[in-house]
């Protein structure tokens, strides 16, 4: 009986021990699988892409803060920031003391000295001004991170950037023009030839100046408009002058038209695609009536550019902007192209209620020229009214006369 009992209980106990060892094995295996899965999850390309996306998002928000502070004192160039603005940014973020105590003032001076020393070793601007582009600004933040004493400078840099982003208020909203870009496709296609030539003329000026300042950037950057050349374009074609837009407003639209997430900082420039976006943003700002179709607003902007050039005296029009590659005067080319297009449109007045008075080229322009309005309203004209143009010449706006 005892043998039978032991025989009956022995396999049972063996099974129990096997089950126990099997359970412990399963648990250890499960634990190792979890660790392995966790490791795979951490090392997976998807996880790496999320980290890269977060870093890109950080860089884009930092770029917005950078441009906001670059525009605080003046709008000379919103793509470069002065040392005094960098110090102000660090104070506003709480990275350095911004109070009026003597100790805070000493810290401010020390930080400014560090910035000046860093700028000498990173000459992004080789003229008399002392400014940093975004690449040098990011390098400066990394320089501060290394000075913090942290063994991992990369971690210290991330912490510094996060502090800047967290302490800042909501960033300025970027004006999106994707829908308007689709609506203006036909107009942009119709004016692609003159607009491309205008762009290439100012891009050539930008490139020649950049070769002197930063040869490496000139080598790697695609054809683009620098901010200075974009302002020159805005003034020449009457967008900034005549009280239509301020330089600060123009600078904001220039910044919004740069690539949002470029592959490299060499690509953060105003290419032809960005130039077209900027024109659409300008047309939206100039036109106060949001109900006006985007393509009509765009035509209104082109008419404004034509008005600014045509209202100049014929003798002044002899000053040429020659595109060397085509030996072509881009200003006159745009004038002729717009007039041909406008003729097909039966000289429609895209300015709506804004009357247009046209004078002959043989007659001098009238002495009294009222300034162009700060905002233009492009209302659709009545169907019964048709604006006509007898001959191209000096064109001015007049509050009292109307050509029918």
From TrEMBL:
List, as start-end ranges, the regions of compositional bias called Low complexity.
18-29
Residue stretches of biased makeup (Pro residues): 364-373
Ranges of compositional bias, category Basic and acidic residues: 30-39
Q: Provide the transmembrane region boundaries.
A: none
- Region Disordered: list its residue ranges: 1-39, 358-404
Which ranges of the sequence are coiled-coil? Answer: none
Where does the record place Polar residues bias? 1-14, 391-404
**Protein name, entry field:** Uncharacterized protein
Question: Where does this protein come from, organism-wise?
Answer: Phytophthora nicotianae (Potato buckeye rot agent)
Q: What is the lineage of its organism?
A: Eukaryota, Sar, Stramenopiles, Oomycota, Peronosporomycetes
